[in-house]
Amino acid sequence: MGSERKRARRYALLSGKGGVGKSIITANLAATLSTFGRRILVIDADLGLASLDVILGITPVSTIQESFRGEQSIEQVLQSTRGFDFVPAASGLPEGTVLTERLTAGVESAIAALEERYDAILFDAGAGIGDVVMFFAGLADEIMLVVTPEPTCLMDTYATIKVLYHTHGTRDFLLVVNQSGPSPASADAGERIAAHLQEVISSHFESQETDPVRIRLAGSIPVDTAVKHSVMRRRLLGETNPDAPATRALTRLAAFIDAAIRNRKTP
Ligand SMILES: Nc1ncnc2c1ncn2[C@@H]1O[C@H](COP(=O)(O)OP(=O)(O)O)[C@@H](O)[C@H]1O
Ligand SMILES: [Mg+2]
What we know:
The protein is of the alpha/beta class. It contains eleven helices and eight strands.
């Protein structure tokens, strides 16, 4: 009993549409969770267009792709920043966009080597529903869908949910509504979008399935100029704008995830 170890809870941040805020949410969420005392590993899973190093203002020493090739050990790739650990990826290499045996084996062995040290692992995935994104989704315990209120984004989210349901049988989704209007009303906007998405999905699945897909709102983040401000400075929101509405919303999201990590079941 005393030897029971809780495996790190794995979260994949996904979105059908690109540029919705996955990477800024991943970076800021990891930093805030680490201030709560959680041991967090972030993996840049956007292997084609990695950008977390830019958001974090870090120049990677080496990348996860080099560990796939056996040129670096995963320990050499790992970097620490703001209280959490980070596995950077290279951008612009075609090998990151195709799901090869080397890629899947490389990611799986990196996770196996590292995960005992952490409470949670965050995968910052690429946009869309390609093979590499679906691979990371398949490794995750929780899918966190990042959406904006735009109808095109909601359409893509709906499609992403359908594909995940059919490929991995995923039924439970966490939702983060980003850029959900201006600050005070953004929480209501988040609730409305989550309810709308749930309704569309339930009506689709009801006709064919007994057990519909469930969407749970994890957080709503307002449109906030502080986000661009922090990205332009290659810093995190807590560093440039600690009292901004987006910063406070990200802290609430981190508290939600923190509670989930604390209550997680031992597999
Ligand atoms: N809440 C927000 N308020 C204002 N701008 C935002 C917000 N969230 C994201 N952005 C803008 O969107 C850009 C893309 O975010 P990013 O996290 O890189 O998206 P993704 O990883 O989904 O492609 C950011 O650089 C920022 O300028
Ligand atoms: Mg990104």
